Amino acid sequence: MGFSSPPVKPSQLQPFPPLPRLLRPTLIPALHLTQLAAAIASNAASASGGTPTITFCGDSTSTKNANNAVAQSENLFGQFMRRIREDYPGVSIRFNDRGIGGSTWNDLKGIPNFAGGITPPSWYTVPSQPWLQTYVKPNAGIGNPGPDVLVIPMGTNDSYFIALSNIRTVLDIIANTSTFPITPDIIFVTPHGRTPNNGDLSQNGYQMASGLMRSIGIAGPTSTGSTLFTKRIGVIDLGRMDAMSRLGFDPCVQYLTRKMTAQSGITAFPFAFAQCDGDFDLQLTFPAQASTLFGSSNAITISAGPSTAGGSELCRVRFSLNPTNIIAQYLYGPYQSTVSANAPIGTGNVTFRVSCKQSHLIVEANGVILLDQLVARPGGYFQPTLAMTVPPTGASMTVDAYSAGSCIATQKTLTDAQMWGGQIIGGNGSPIDGNAINHESSYGAALTIAAALEAVRFV
Fold first, then answer.
1. Which CATH class is domain 254-407?
2. Who wins on pLDDT, 340 or 148?
3. pTM, 2 dp
4. Matching fold, domains 20-248+421-454 and 254-407
């Protein structure tokens, strides 16, 4: 007597809760808080010449009254103070609020756009003076102590148009000893999102900004082209915690899915590949075109531009001939890295591979590794595209393999309404705090800000 077994069902990975212990240590005191440690060990070593000082200078999320919360203890400024004091009990530490609502990295490098709607805070007494060089640096004339740590929560208002050049300029201003005689430690706080329900999409590119700031912390300031700032940058990854708890995915952990295999005869350029969540692996062949592919000064670029309207191409790999060898450059705005390795052009096929896994980029040509390093790059959803500056006659491409990254799923523990608050809840008509747009309620802050800070140790 026979029997039939039930069909085998594919396994399904279950979402996991966004517990703080899952986060990588992106702020390590021995690497990122060396000046704070020196100032605490001896107040004479402090940038203020006395009490160790931590200064916040970012957008509205960095200010004392940011969140329309039931108490100042609930917002980022208050929660950060609590965590520092827990790790340094009994130590006197001064906290300075130099944040400005509505600001961007472009504002921080110079004078905020007060004419465009940004309101100067009470301490910004001369609006014509630059922000960093007047109100953040040591300035005895206005009673401003030098910072040992600069905490920079920024990027929400930069959105799709965050510029690496602005971040690089800010870092070099901070590294200039004529402005900051003692270079402070830097902590980036990655931005989170805003409610999608009010129709304002101006801050929807926050994932791009969050990914860029995160990658600079991982790859180091040299990945930005910064010529003066050399210290490592710590990161409090609020953007990642928000994505894990409210949006249901982890932007830092992705898996690859094969999208194309052995597709030949592609002759129309530029050629766009399937969308990815940031990570991708691309292997290409230009069959029997070694003698023609780079003719007439042609260059081949594989770019990662946002698939969402409103952005522009952000980073790309550029292949060219110099003069008989293939070289590659990684570009993010200005050239960020020139690769010294050469790949002989040969006489037959030309092959390329570009693999991007978070901040790790590997570039190959004809089997030779031209680039293998950490780079600064944005986050968010992207559509890799191959283009040619001067496509040669008869150019034909084969996609040997293309795999696109997808973020792993996490278990949502927070709704938009719980996160941003500002609504009437419960039978007694009690309001939940928050501004219903982009400042957390106390409940939302507990599951994002407090959770992200619990993953950090300051000593």
1. mainly beta
2. 148
3. 0.90
4. no
